[in-house]
Structure formats: C-alpha cells, structure tokens
Design a protein that fits this description.
Elements (H helix, E strand, L loop, with lengths): L1 H17 L5 E8 L2 E8 L3 H19 L7 H7 L9 H16 L9 H6 L12 H8 L13
Antiparallel strand pairs: 1-2
C-alpha cells in the first residue's frame, strides 16, 4: 500500500509542476555580423522575440561598420569632417568615448581602421606594414573623436 501512495504522490507532484511551466519561445537571429540566440518566457514571449529581433535589425542598420548604408559607415567615410547625428547615436558615441577613457583605451571604437588593415572584418587577412600601422594608430584613441551637440 505504501508503494501505491508513493506513486500517487509522485504523479501528483509531476502534474502540479508541469502546470506551472511558463510559455517560452526561442529564435536565432543574424545581426551585427553575429549569430544570436534569443529566448523569452511568459505569455507574450513570441511578441517579445519579434520586437527584440526588429530592434537588433534597427541597431544593425545604424551601427554596422560593414554596411555602407549605416550611420556609422557614413561617419567613418567622412572622417575629419562634421557629420550630424541623431540624439540616440550621439549618446552612444559619448558613452563609447567615456568607456574608452575609463578603460585606458582597452575599449576603443576608433580601432576600426587598424582592424581593417589586418583584414579581420573583410576576411582578407594580412600583416600590414609597420609604417601603415603607425599611420593608422595615429588616428586611434578617444581623443581623436570630437562630439559637439548633435
């Protein structure tokens, strides 16, 4: 009789636990040159994933270094001249500049020309000449980025 009640109790616990499961959803997204796995839980998990995916694509379209149409590519192409940007991007650039300062350059968004010279983002790897690296490094550092009210 003990086995019977142990079995009934076990079954009851399993059923009660399965009733507590939340709705969940998962999705893979390719943005920012990266495969991302997203997961959401709750009654609106599918909607949350759709919104997250759209936001990733929106950010990618503005911040991609490899897309010629992105705002960041336009800023890079116009290096040395003023480029008007929207408030959201201005704030992001200000934060990036601050993070570069507080990390003593360990985080530095101005490193892109050096990374490109090595071919990392173009999938055409090479070792650049020392003179080329020195020329590019003279442009690297948050002190070379100026942000003035928009």
């Amino acid at each position: 009789m003990r086995r019977f009640w142990a079995g009934v109790l076990t079954l009851a616990m399993m059923l009660s636990l399965s009733a507590c499961q939340e709705a969940s959803a998962e999705k893979q997204v390719f943005a920012m040159d990266t495969v991302m796995s997203l997961a959401a839980y709750g009654d609106t998990s599918e909607e949350a994933l759709k919104e997250a995916e759209l936001e990733l694509y929106r950010l990618d379209s503005q911040l991609s270094k490899t897309s010629q149409a992105s705002l960041v590519s336009k800023i890079n192409a116009a290096a040395g001249t003023d480029v008007p940007v929207e408030e959201e991007l201005e704030e992001l650039l200000r934060k990036a500049k601050l993070y570069s300062k507080v990390t003593n350059g360990a985080f530095d968004i101005t490193i892109a020309p050096v990374v490109s010279a090595w071919g990392f983002t173009e999938d055409s790897y090479c070792v650049p000449e020392q003179t080329e690296l020195e020329r590019l490094l003279s442009h690297v550092g948050e002190e070379n980025m100026t942000i003035e009210g928009g």
